[in-house]
Design goal:
Strand content: 15-25%
Largest sheet: 9 strands, mixed
Number of helices: 15
Distance between the termini: 14 Å
Order of helices and strands: EHHHHHHHEEEEHEHEEEHEEEHHHHEEH
Shape: elongated
Helix content: 25-40%
Structural class: alpha+beta
Length: about 400
């Protein structure tokens, strides 16, 4: 499809001017083009608002957390005051943005298209040996009139709080990680049914990873049976009072932990044979369980410990750096749109780290501070734009040329 943005390139010049505070936007734009986001938005049927192309509005929203804007109003203000962002994003007011988010669009379709596009590329696809992490996070809000808001249990606070409970599937391997599907727990559903729904969609989205890990809360017969039927293996932690049959005797998980057993095969009532493993997790002995009898002790422990990648850094970065909790809308549809945009923004940052192996251990906060927020010059070159990068910003220039579109 015809490009909606001006052609963009980076030029290194130690004597650059100070026309933009966000010279690293060129990298985000390169990642945007790599994932072909203009086409994804068009394919999802998301329409322009007040004459402003949907892709431009979406790109502006994706940049919002990178600017630490917090609100749509602040994002508009910072965009209008920056020469690079002004050139990339047509002028629009706050009401245009609000109508865009609240429009009758299928935002879930856009999220699905993002996942499918990642699976089409050898560099970004989920590997069969990769790991899918299942977990949820509470987003606290104070607006009682927000649509579908309810009281949800917050394990951090140890009490029910007003807000939303977001259930997420997250993919990770040695090189990359990104969010997959999500669903909000509402009064009319529950976490287990949502987890089953999300897992059932993995095949349709082309995700080839075959192993799922989750905490004890999701250790439900209904879920693990569905995972087995889908051809997915699973690893989890058992609560201490869970019953197993070992060598013909019915015992609690705590009994297995205290027995000194390191690993054993057992029967899980209502399911069948499982492997149980005793390991120290967070300075306490825990009983880990998997439906894959071929897994060794060391592998089971590693997989379960990798579960914490969704708590730290993904949930932490999504809330603190990507603005997952920074929404101020009463409509639930706009909340879904906001979530999709946050996941897209997080994915683009993940791609930045993927295309430079030296950045694999860098946090989202580091990328924002050291790559995105870069003072640079801007000038017109032919029919496009050039971002003039000064001393210390050579990495931005190299990254902007490293990605094949």
């Amino acid at each position: 499809m015809k490009g909606l943005f001006p052609r963009l390139e980076a030029i290194y010049d130690p004597d650059r001017k100070n026309d933009t505070r966000y010279g690293g936007a060129i990298i985000m734009k390169r990642m945007w083009d790599y994932l072909d986001c203009d086409r994804l938005i068009s394919s999802a049927g998301i329409q322009k608002r007040s004459g402003v192309p949907a892709s431009c509005l979406a790109f502006n929203y994706v940049l919002k957390p990178m600017m630490d804007a917090g609100s749509i109003k602040r994002a508009n203000t910072r965009t209008r005051g920056d020469q690079l962002l002004q050139a990339l994003i047509p002028g629009h007011d706050q009401s245009t943005f609000n109508r865009f988010l609240n429009g009758p669009h299928d935002w879930y379709a856009l999220n699905d298209l993002r996942i499918q596009e990642l699976q089409k590329r050898g560099r970004t696809r989920a590997l069969e040996g990769g790991l899918i992490v299942l977990d949820d996070v509470v987003i606290r809000k104070s607006g009682e009139r927000m649509e579908k808001i309810t009281y949800v249990w917050d394990p951090v606070e140890g009490k029910a709080v007003l807000g939303y409970d977001l259930v997420v599937l997250y993919y990770t391997d040695a090189e990359k990680s990104y969010p997959l599907s999500f669903a909000y727990k509402l009064k009319e559903n529950d976490r287990i049914s949502l987890a089953i729904q999300l897992a059932e969609g993995l095949g349709r989205l082309g995700v080839e990873a075959r192993r799922v890990v989750f905490d004890a809360w999701y250790f439900a017969l209904e879920l693990i049976t569905h995972l087995r039927d889908l051809g997915l293996s699973w690893v989890t932690r058992s609560k201490k009072n869970r019953l197993f049959t070992v060598d013909g005797a019915t015992v609690h998980a705590e009994d297995i932990i205290q027995s000194g057993t390191k690993e054993a095969e057992a029967q899980l009532p209502g399911y069948g044979p499982v492997k149980v493993v005793v390991a120290e997790i967070n300075d306490k002995k825990r009983l880990l369980v998997t439906g894959d009898l071929r897994m060794k002790w060391k592998e089971v422990v590693k997989v379960y410990r990798d579960r914490f990648l969704i708590d730290n850094p993904f949930f932490r970065d999504s809330k603190q750096e990507m603005g997952l909790a920074d929404f101020h809308t009463r409509r639930f549809g706009a909340l879904v749109a906001h979530t999709v945009m946050c996941f897209l923004s997080y994915t683009l940052v993940s791609l930045v780290r993927l295309f430079d192996r030296g950045l694999l251990d860098k946090t989202v906060g580091w990328v924002k501070e050291n790559l995105f927020r870069a003072v640079a010059g801007v000038k017109r070159v032919g029919g496009g734009l050039a971002v003039i990068l000064g001393r210390g910003l050579e990495l931005i220039s190299s990254l902007s040329h490293a990605v094949s579109i």
